[in-house]
Amino acid sequence: MAAPPAYTLIATDLDGTLLRGDDTLSDRSRAALARAVEAGAQHLVVTGRPAPRVRPLLEDLGGKGLAVCGQGAQLYDAGADRLLWSVTLDRELAETALGKIEAEVGQVFAAVDQDGVDGLTLIEPGYLMPHPTLPAVRVRRRDDLWCEPISKVLLRHQSLSDDELADAARGVVGSLATVTMSGPGTVELQPCGITKATGLALAAEHLGLSREQALAFGDMPNDIPMFRWAAHGVAMANAHPELRAVADEVTLSNEDDGIAVVLERLFA
Question: In b/e form, how buried is each residue of 97-122, taking b as 16+ CB within 10 angstroms?
Answer without folding.
Answer: bbebbeeebeebbbbbbbbbbebbbb
